[in-house]
Amino acid sequence: MLVDNVEIKVKAGNGGRGLASFRKEKFLPFGGPDGGDGGKGGDVYLEASNDLVDLASFKHKLNYSAGNGGVGGKNKMHGLNAPDLIIKVPVGTIAYVKDGGEMVRKIDFRTQGQRVKVARGGKGGRGNVHFATATYKAPRDFQPGEKGEQFDIHLDMYLPLDVGIVGMPNSGKSALLSAISGARPQVAEYDFTTREPVLGAVDDGKGKIIWAEMPAIIESSSSGKGLGCRFLKHLSRAHVLVFLLDATSPHLAADLACLRREIENFNPDLAALKYLVAVNKIDLADSHEEVDRLASRLASDSIQVLPVSAVNGTGLKELVESVHKMVTEDVLSQPKEPEIIFRPRPVDRRD
Known about the structure:
- The chain is of the alpha/beta class.
- The protein has 5 helices and 14 strands.
């Protein structure tokens, strides 16, 4: 079962306390204070990794703590700094950092190796060497270490996909994905064969694009009927949607309207994504009149309607080429992130 959201607790390490000690050597009975500072507590980082496919690794462990800093030593020795704790999450995860139930930070992990500090370790306390003055030469004062930060973090994972396949039960979504990619989803003649998203890489000769088959949608899925719309959130990463219809259905327009309505009810932003319609099982249809009628109706909105067959390969090449062209156009139309240029501060010799 795909685990795509969990809530964990993280705590950075506390700083080590400073030490109150005095230098004692032969012929030096009053050596003065020499207590060292405590070490720093470990920080907590989240790091994106392609090695993880979901959040199942967090299912049995929800509390994460970094180590505490070491206590200061004699002879002004600094306490040991605790190592940082690095928690790996799948690429495509959004972390909502909450303090006292209120969200204070949102982090989107989109690239491999992206690392963000989410909890800062406490500073080490000062030893008694820092409290000596001309009139207070033997201080026994020292500072405890600072407390490390702690937060609740809600992790919400989104699959890294470019194209989403959406359709009703038994419309041939699994068969289509297995026909155009190396994915091998379960294919059967009963409804709701697919119970979680299945990814497949499709190569059109110019590059690979990730397609994803979504579990079947039926009337009132947005209200929780059937498998509901739990996994439709992953479509927010998609550039293009492919609405897959069954050519043997006598009501293609009504089927498409149902799919569009359920998606819009779930999230209106998904309804604004670019899409085309693929009519599968065209080899089993007695007539193409219903397909032609739907194509003429959608032509005014420049929506493509492509008859295909996942079994004998009819129209699959044209479908892949059309979808990949739409994905490329959508990627190029999106605003580019501003380039970050590091300009070091000029060095002034007087500093």
